[in-house]
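Homework help board

Subject: predicted structure for assignment chain

Our instructor gave us this sequence and asked us to write out the predicted structure in token form, then describe one feature. I got the tokens but I'm not sure how to describe them. Can anyone check?
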Amino acid sequence: MQSRVALVTGAGSGIGAGIAQELATQGHRVAVLDRTPETATATADQIKASGGTALAVHADVSDPAQVTQAVAEVTASLGPVGILVNNAGFAKDNNVLDMPLDDWDAVVNTHLRGSFLMLKATAPAMRETGWGRIVNISSISALGDDERVNYVAAKSGLEGFTRAAALDLAQHGITVNAVGPGVVHTKMTTVSAARAGRTLEQHLEAQAKTIPVGRIGTPHDIARAVLFFAAEDADFVTGQVIYVSGGPHG
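My token output:
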């Protein structure tokens, strides 16, 4: 695999950190972007300690000026971005009737607007080289989930964005695909457990029982799917969504 510059958003922890680390093991130069500088630095330091090349970048992906500055910083330090992974996101769950507008905007702006802004900032350089890989991190929640209408709307919108952008960019050698994680043990799992009124251990046990393979996912599981879409010879696969969820389940 040719060494590329890979930019992963929300890479300070959880799935994003796992993806960044896995890309680094493949020889890519990784830009670790997060809105929390300390976590971005921690992930970048882990990559460098393992012999990889990484750069910590601080930005809020929903802010156009910050996105532009971040991509310029990455380009100056590592080179033009060839692989973009739009992973940044978080949850602010509530019943649709009780959902504050601010919580709707915060989640949709990060997941959906942020992915759009990151694509707009990186795809021109990919077009110039005639090669690019964009992978958006969706969720099985895109198929529907209770009391998280903002998150579901953002993720289902991200899947539509993936299919449409794939058509627009295919002629330039740029693929756009999405990976939809199922239940993955990250910091967000603790939030989900509290929302369900369970301890973390109770929540993980209950969730595992709904998954056909019988276990909770890991960031590594998601990262492997990202690597498939980011591969040099994956140029005939675009506009696709793959759910990495241990089998179909509700």
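Reply (TA_rk): Your tokens look well-formed. For the description, you could write something like this. The radius of gyration is 17 Å. That's the kind of observation they're looking for.
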